[in-house]
Write the structure tokens for this entry.
Amino acid sequence: MYKGASDNLIATYVPAGRQDASEPMSKHAPKSSDEFEYIKWLRSELPPSGPNLEVGPGDDCAILRVETDKLALKIDSVIEGKHFMLYEKGVRRPAVLGPSATPEEIGRKAVTRCLSDLAAMGATPVSCMVAVTLHTGAPVKLREELFLGISKTCATYGLSLAGGDTQSWDGPLSITVSMIGAMNGVRPALRAGAAPGDVIAITGSLGGSILGKHLRFEPRIAEGRFLAERGVSAMIDISDGLSGDITRICEESGLRFKVGADIAAEAVPVSKSARRLAKLESQGAERALHHALHDGEDFELLFIVRPNRWKQIVKEWPFDVPIRALGMMRPLKKDEPLVRILKKGEPEALEVLSWVHQL
Amino acid sequence: MYKGASDNLIATYVPAGRQDASEPMSKHAPKSSDEFEYIKWLRSELPPSGPNLEVGPGDDCAILRVETDKLALKIDSVIEGKHFMLYEKGVRRPAVLGPSATPEEIGRKAVTRCLSDLAAMGATPVSCMVAVTLHTGAPVKLREELFLGISKTCATYGLSLAGGDTQSWDGPLSITVSMIGAMNGVRPALRAGAAPGDVIAITGSLGGSILGKHLRFEPRIAEGRFLAERGVSAMIDISDGLSGDITRICEESGLRFKVGADIAAEAVPVSKSARRLAKLESQGAERALHHALHDGEDFELLFIVRPNRWKQIVKEWPFDVPIRALGMMRPLKKDEPLVRILKKGEPEALEVLSWVHQL
């Protein structure tokens, strides 16, 4: 069990005599570092909230007007040492670990991760709330830059910032974002729904996001909406890695009729970053493909679609990011692997080497 | 800066050769402790979701049907060492620090804190999402009991559990809950709105919550709804302490016309716990009053209401928990203290000694 924080008092206990004491533990006087001063500053720096937010941060709850019948809801945390390494002056990192993150990039990533999940449902972003836990005594500059990263990202994607919570503790930096999107009459694109014969397709390219993309990716909101409107069979964003995420599509879609996926190795869009990372590891094309198949946090959309709809989508696709067919769904026969990769037409089982969180 | 986690790799990097290695860092094989196994278990233990949750946990987002025009939104974190001390076998705690918490109590508190904020707006609970960050290697029993605490509390209060996120790290236990309530046509009870001549009133009694109530309090949902329906001028839940929370009402209500509050010392409902805590500190009634005025986490409703409505509310009050008038709002004159306490009719400034978070 972690013991780091167990010497602190909890919030409700005010020791006798604290009111006239000047001990360093004192939590009484609103100082520049207290939560309320910080909240005042936060409120002055909020993104434009739009007409939907009737009551913004600062009351017991926010009040949001909604005009849709269906909401998409998401909660997600990014934590120090796992989703980002905080930039430290003078610290050199091995090139294969990619860059450390500025507070603003961390704030951006916390919001865009949720946006990517909304995109994968076909939802339009409406509003979000953010809970931040800082290390006690974290510099004012850090929390201000962190908040500006959050606030600017909300403004960019038309999200109101409905509320927040800020805590500090003897532990690492953690940001939890909860987000609300509106379906506005579009049927949500689920993970379940892929059927044999469906095309497996993807936006953009994959692999090596650790070299920077995981901090600066573009959530595919308009693209996700476009695809959901056109009735894809299933959709997911690539957060853990292609091998794992296609496996989840197969599992979720296979509750009634078992389905598997075949992916053509030569069709996998290997990113420049995947190639660069392989090179940094003194390896070649096979390793770059490995990164494209298994690396996480590319936040591209993996979607499954009936062949006739796929043709229509290719014809009408209005976005800069390319789309590409990777393979096809198939009926899953007994003892067959769920996901196979075809190398020069020869199928072999694709192992799930993408991210699995250990608790 | 906290350094504890900085040796870990971040989520996106899969070192070369990891797939065939048996090193202890391996995150490949779904074991009983991996996130997906845990999620499967969680999904099997979810509270009844009701017809509103079209898509529950497990997809990119949850999909919630809404029939109200206004939602109340809240996010809040409880963190180890600040909002609870985790129960440890064999560890004896000083009596004035109250009991440590079981994982189930922690889960309950994380949800009921948000419920209390919804109550203070007059909102009806609809749905919530929960992000948990555990210490790496936390016992399965801990996270299961924690989740059961969350799940049972959701079931008790009619909340669907729409989604979650579970992480682990080299840090303390943290639970963030985001919650959605429906206003269903009732005007939200804000912190702003208190006017001179309004009655200051409260549910229940105050002080000494550290002796146990902060883990087991009853969020005043039906009471808050009843009060909001009857048009209170302002309402807040007592989370930081009466002195601080009435100050916030005065500040928020005083944006146009400055208002202050007078509280009669003899009218403050001092709880049994406040008296017991004073006794544990070898002090008397004055100290018990101090606890009632300044302790946090009683989660009673502090509400401000016009005198004629107050009379009506007293007449119609259908709940077990008592309500009591504490004092009155007044016009704030120059150089007058914002909040005064009247002891035998003599006003003196009431200092804010309640909880102020330091960051």
Summary: Residues 199-349 of chain B form a domain with the Phosphoribosyl-aminoimidazole Synthetase; Chain A, domain 2 fold (CATH 3.90.650.10). The two ends of chain B are 13 Å apart (CA to CA).
